[in-house]
Amino acid sequence: MLRTAAAVDGVRPLSEEAELRLQHGGPAGGRDVLATDPDGVPVGYARLELGDAGTADDAEAELVVVPSARGRGTGRALLTRLEELAGPRPLRVWAHGDLPAATALATARGYSRARVLLQMRRPLSDADLDPGVAPPDGVTVTAFRPGRDEPAWLRVNARAFATHPEQGSWTPADLALREAEPWFDPAGFLLAWRGDPDGGGTLLGSHWTKVHPPGDAGPDPVGEVYVLGIDPDAQGLGLGRALTALGLAHLRAAGLAQVLLYVEEDNVPAVALYERSGFTRHAVDVSWRRVP
Asked: Which EC class is this protein assigned (predicted)?
């Protein structure tokens, strides 16, 4: 169902996080909601995250309806069930691709746009893609070592994304799930160290790249700036530019023709920086919010 929706809509209907929780489960409070036709065939799916019990945090959800079953009220039925399960909490629902049908459903039910996430892309064949940008003096860039570098990376990730609603809260389990995924490649997970990683060195930042297989983000394989994070104490060293160049060079050497990244639309400085780096807007994801 997910693959069919992605092929028709040109965008993945669920986030990576929702797909991982569908496969492996997730924190307490998560629910999988399935809509079926009279013959028991799945025609719609939603993932709901309620978070910790007893809090007033927003509930969050994502939903998809198989293309052949659209226009029959399945999306409305799934959304109604999500609202029932969310109870008195405000509910946020992600619409990947900002498709007209999702906008119509959300606005008709009293939702408003709360967050907008841009997917930006650029070619990897441009002459201005410079793999020769060197890291700052005294900094060494190495590949991630599974089983050794997890604690250091999680610490820097939490500091670099302290204000990010999802990325900054990653746990060892979140990292382990991704290390077990078929796409994981430590050679494309670049870490910048000051000093010896095994002798008291300090991790300053990282650029974790990802390769989407054919059919995932398009008909051909596509690279991704998956997580690019710099420790706040290492800002201003030019490390982000160097790690970006090294990561993109790694993806180009792997034979990829295009790279994507995600950025919040209201992060105006970051969007401007990426646009100056040759990225253009490709797709939009919208988080719709409704207060009961």
From this structure: transferase
Is 63 labeled as ligand-binding? Answer: yes
* 258 belongs to an annotated ligand binding site: no
Tell me the pLDDT tens digit for each residue of 33-65.
999 999 999 999 999 999 766 666 899 999 999
156 marked as part of a ligand binding site:
no
- In a domain? residue 277: no
Tell me: is residue 271 an annotated ligand-binding position.
no
- Enclosing domain of residue 193: 125-256
- Does 239 appear as a known binding residue? yes
Answer yes or no: do 59 and 172 share one domain. Answer: no
On whether 275 is known to bind a ligand per the annotation, the reply is no
Does residue 226 contact residue 250 with C-beta atoms inside 8 Å? no
Answer yes or no: pTM beyond 0.85.
Answer: yes
- Give me the CATH number covering residue 207: 3.40.630.30
Cβ-contact 37, 45 below 8 angstroms: no
User: Is 65 marked as a binding-site residue?
Assistant: yes
Is 228 labelled a binding residue?
Answer: yes
Q: Are residues 23 and 60 in the same domain?
A: yes
- Whether residue 166 is annotated as binding a ligand: the answer is yes
Domain count of the fold of the chain = 2
Residues 6+ apart with CB under 8 A from 148: 197
